[in-house]
């Protein structure tokens, strides 16, 4: 049976099974914020319980309340809600995953919700969205009622989910001390990194749990990335002090294990004789790893709060090397564009604004809601090529307003000491919703309701009501941003590198107020994150569940999943020194694709219709010159003739013939870029001449 038919039928069968069993399936959870400077007191000032329906150039085309298993029309309407809150939302082809950080007695023990979004990711045009529907396939359970699943990330092949857990639910009076059910598939530890097998999305299963309570609050966020044919998970631990750092784990899917291999903050790392004291003084919030769109090497972007955005070479995860820094306060999230835009490497860095921090060491105007900065990262080139030391990418313009510098500069002294008032910056532009309390609702798109009511006056906000939050970037420079009660905002990186808003969706389903996370806000929308796939934006609603949003100016249908089966076959796995091996790659796809392989840097390709590119000191990329839909591709390699050693070959990658970038990916695992087929590599042993 063709690959596409197989996958579509499996997904549809899962939906039907879920729908049929929904009436007999107990809704099964966690809560938290664990964000820096959370007030934990009261429920905000202006927007609690307020449903909004403001939009520009957008339309909500799908919604699921996550009330229970089944399609939205059966178990996903606002009147049948999830009781509590969601956090991160991720999409891989036909499936989407929402981490659950609050799950009360009405819908207990939920840790992860799994959705079928194939109607949207496989839509050929916007016409197909008229009948599209989100379906809920399953809930992965959370055994610890006082722990929150704060974050979820996915393996490249979508077979595994990595869940970050923190023991913070009790802060919000969301846990009741009971489990609610007698059986669990999640782990019991409150501070942990969990690996979940989601290959059968209707039946997720725990693979392993690594207890991380030694790092106090546990991981707030994490990121998965394949490097050198191995799989790694990077966790961000947000506590100040010696526990505030990035931890690196290697995942072995055959053994089902996570091994801790490294940790990093900016003045310490595993293996050094002394642990520094400054690096743990800042809040390590989030981490993203991208195969760089210019050089192909894995580059890590660390949002390190008041220590700025730290950028690291992750080619060797056991020896992370800092490449540069962009200086800013409240570095909450930093996402590289998935491709070079206008020939330039850029990233966007965002704030999170818990409350007015004026007078607390932050330099900004009272009442502002957090910026998104567009930053030029091309100065990293000289560092990567070995021609310069770590690059100082400058200081955000908002930190230099009125000539005021940050309260402390210890984190940046290695980059040249104090910055002049008009100091250098590679910040290209920035965007903000509310600049200060001087800005009125009349001046802010999407707040017409508040502007029309004389009783509404913007006076800043408590907790996180109007804060910027998590976002995604597509290959054309579209930025989709979850902005809490301001909904989802659409920005465009223009040809002249400006950030321009092109639309927004401040539409909130009318869920019961007692189902929402009242200790933050009961308002809807309240969007934690937004991701874009196939021209459709999926917004993770904290209080109300996920939405699918179509934008008037964004085409649908150009980024549908590619269904294929792909396998490598070699002459042997044990070679004598200098031996030549034929490598065969078998492909069965639903459309023509390009294919490439990765081999060790000291292996030589001696024949085949291929193009070989060496990633300096890292790997070689072997790209077949012809496209294939069904058939076998071949190339020949000669293994080294010196010492005995073991080598990893792979993973295989595939792309459409019109692939938009040689490397890259960032957050968007879309099909306009190269995709890793799976996490599998072939391990070959070469017996050297001296043996």
Could you explain the architecture of this structure?
- It contains five helices and 43 strands.
- β28 and β29 (499-507) form a beta hairpin.
- The longest helix is centred in the first third of the chain and has 19 residues, at 3-21.
Concise description?
The protein is mainly beta and 691 residues long. It contains 5 helices and 43 strands.
Distance between the termini: 47 Å
Structural class: mainly beta
> What's the number of helices?
5
- Categorize the overall geometry: globular
Please state roughly what percent of the residues sit in beta strands, choosing from under 5%, 5-15%, 15-25%, 25-35%, 35-45% or over 45%. 35-45%
Biggest sheet descriptor: 8 strands, antiparallel
Report the mean per-residue pLDDT as an integer: 83
Kindly state the number of beta strands.
43
Low-confidence spans:
1-44
Q: Estimate the helix proportion, in percent.
A: under 10%
Instruction: Round the Cα radius of gyration to an integer and report it.
Output: 24 Å
Question: How do the strands and helices of this protein lay out in sequence?
Answer:
Blueprint: H1 3-21, E1 53-56, E2 58-63, E3 70-71, H2 72-75, E4 84-92, E5 95-103, E6 110-116, H3 118-121, E7 135-141, E8 148-154, E9 160-166, E10 192-197, E11 205-211, E12 221-227, E13 230-237, E14 245-252, E15 257-265, E16 268-269, E17 286-291, E18 298-303, E19 309-313, E20 321-327, E21 333-336, E22 346-350, E23 371-376, H4 380-384, E24 391-395, E25 427-432, H5 448-452, E26 471-473, E27 478-482, E28 488-493, E29 499-507, E30 527-533, E31 536-541, E32 547-551, E33 564-570, E34 574-576, E35 580-599, E36 604-607, E37 610-615, E38 619-624, E39 628-638, E40 645-649, E41 653-655, E42 675-676, E43 682-687
Parallel strand pairs: 20-24, 34-43
Antiparallel strand pairs: 1-29, 2-32, 3-7, 4-5, 5-6, 6-7, 8-9, 9-10, 10-11, 12-13, 13-14, 14-15, 15-16, 17-18, 18-19, 19-20, 21-22, 22-23, 23-25, 26-27, 27-28, 28-29, 30-31, 31-32, 33-35, 35-38, 35-39, 35-41, 36-39, 37-38, 40-43, 41-42
């Amino acid at each position: 049976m063709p690959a596409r038919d197989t996958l579509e039928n499996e997904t549809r069968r899962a939906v039907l099974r879920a729908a049929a069993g929904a009436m007999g399936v107990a809704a099964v959870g966690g809560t938290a914020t664990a964000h820096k400077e959370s007030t934990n007191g009261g429920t905000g000032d202006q927007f609690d319980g307020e449903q909004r329906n403001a939009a520009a150039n957008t339309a909500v085309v799908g919604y699921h309340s996550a009330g229970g298993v089944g399609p939205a029309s059966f178990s996903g309407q606002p009147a049948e809600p999830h009781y509590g809150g969601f956090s991160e939302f991720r999409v891989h082809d036909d499936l989407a995953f929402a981490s659950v950080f609050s799950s009360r007695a009405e819908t207990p023990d939920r840790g992860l919700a799994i959705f079928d979004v194939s109607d949207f990711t496989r839509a050929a045009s916007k016409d197909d969205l008229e009948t599209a529907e989100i379906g809920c396939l399953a809930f992965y359970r959370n055994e610890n009622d006082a722990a929150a699943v704060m974050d979820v990330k996915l393996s490249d092949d979508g077979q595994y989910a990595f869940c970050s857990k923190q023991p913070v639910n009790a802060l919000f009076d969301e846990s009741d001390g009971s489990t609610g059910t007698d059986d669990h598939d999640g782990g019991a530890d409150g501070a942990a990194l969990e690996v979940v097998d989601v290959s059968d999305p209707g039946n997720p299963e725990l693979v392993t749990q690594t207890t991380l309570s030694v790092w106090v609050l546990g991981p707030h966020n994490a990121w998965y990335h394949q490097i050198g044919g191995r799989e790694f998970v990077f966790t961000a631990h947000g506590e100040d002090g010696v526990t505030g750092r990035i931890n690196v784990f290697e995942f072995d899917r055959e053994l089902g294990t996570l091994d801790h291999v490294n940790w990093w903050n900016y003045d310490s790392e595993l293996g050094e004789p002394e642990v520094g004291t400054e690096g743990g003084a800042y809040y390590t919030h989030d981490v993203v790893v991208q195969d760089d769109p210019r050089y192909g090497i894995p580059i890590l972007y660390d949002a390190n709060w008041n220590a700025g955005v730290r950028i690291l070479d992750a080619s060797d995860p056991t020896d992370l090397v800092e490449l540069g820094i962009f200086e800013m306060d409240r570095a909450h999230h930093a996402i590289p564009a998935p491709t070079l835009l206008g020939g330039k490497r850029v990233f966007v860095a965002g704030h999170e604004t818990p409350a007015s921090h004026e007078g607390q060491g932050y330099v900004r105007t009272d009442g502002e809601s957090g910026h998104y900065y567009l930053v030029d990262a091309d100065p990293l080139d000289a560092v990567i090529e070995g021609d310069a030391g770590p690059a100082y990418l400058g200081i955000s313009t908002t930190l230099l307003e009125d000539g005021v510098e940050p309260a402390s500069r210890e984190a940046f002294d290695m980059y040249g000491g104090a910055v002049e008032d008009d100091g250098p910056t590679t910040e290209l532009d920035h965007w903000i919703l509310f600049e200060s309390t001087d800005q009125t609702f009349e001046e802010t798109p999407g707040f017409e309701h508040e502007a029309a009511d004389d009783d509404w006056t913007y006076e800043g906000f408590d907790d996180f009501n109007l804060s910027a939050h998590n976002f995604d970037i597509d290959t054309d420079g579209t930025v989709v941003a979850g902005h809490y009660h301001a909904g989802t905002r659409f920005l465009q990186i223009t040809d002249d590198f400006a950030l321009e808003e092109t639309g927004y969706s401040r539409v909130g389903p009318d869920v019961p107020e007692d189902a929402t996370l009242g200790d933050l806000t009961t308002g809807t929308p309240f969007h934690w994150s937004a991701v874009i796939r196939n021209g459709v934006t999926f917004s993770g609603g904290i209080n109300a569940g996920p939405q699918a949003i179509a934008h008037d100016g964004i085409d649908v249908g150009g980024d549908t999943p590619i269904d294929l089966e792909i396998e490598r076959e070699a002459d042997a796995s044990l070679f004598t020194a200098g031996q030549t091996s034929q490598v065969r790659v078998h492909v069965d796809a639903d459309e023509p694709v390009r294919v490439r392989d990765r081999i060790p840097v000291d292996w030589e390709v001696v024949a085949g219709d291929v193009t070989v590119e060496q990633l300096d000191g890292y790997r070689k990329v072997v790209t077949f010159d012809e496209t294939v839909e069904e058939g076998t591709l071949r190339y020949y390699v000669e293994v080294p003739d010196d010492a005995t050693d073991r080598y990893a070959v792979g993973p295989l990658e595939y792309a459409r013939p019109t692939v938009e970038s040689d490397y890259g990916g960032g957050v968007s695992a879309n099909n306009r870029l190269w995709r890793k087929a799976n996490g599998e590599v072939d391990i070959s042993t070469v017996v050297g001449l001296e043996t």
